Amino acid sequence: MSSDKSSSIIPKIAVIVVATYIAAQMLSDIASLKIGVVAGLAVDMGTFIYPITFTLRDIVHKVLGKRNAQVLIIAAGVINVFMALYLRWAAVVPSDPSWGFGAEFTAILAPVWRIVAASIAAEVVSELVDTEVYEWFVTKVTQRYQWARVLTSNSVSVPVDNAIFAVGAFAGVLPWGVVWEIFLINLIVKYGMTLLSLPLIYVTPGSGD
Q1: Can you give the residue ranges of every domain in the chain?
Q2: pLDDT for 50-63, tens place per residue?
Q3: Which of 59, 73, 139, 170 falls 20 to 30 Å from 117 in CA-CA distance?
């Protein structure tokens, strides 16, 4: 009886997690267009939601397996490219004269292509790295301690993501000292958010404790 219940719950949870993963990816990319000041530090506002995607990816890996997790990562990258292209097209379409916010829409949502490219590359590469580290931990280390597999995979993938984004988006445009500051601040914030999202791995039934 309990196994029947688990088999009926898991697909529903998987759908919710996949949808949340895609939504978090898109929201973080859009929010990253604003640089906010938090605790006196300049931080792109996508930083607070994006780290959750690493733990969500781990849940997909746990429930649907490595191959499906990889498919999800590539699909999310394609969706984000499409979103950037669509927003760019929407920004350049002439505004109706009766609607007075065309310039504001273009200023806010028209993508900066170098930042878009760096962001998507960082997401895809780091999430694929997360997949490999998670798989290694489960198959070579232990299937117990779900929190440890998430912490280990995220501890590798978050710095990889940060390095690709900071260098890809700002190297040669900003002084290296500023690039390093962006890397360090974002790393601290993202790792903190990773720790907060870590318990999500227990929302689905599975091996480990």
Answers
A1: 2-203
A2: 999 999 999 999 99
A3: 59
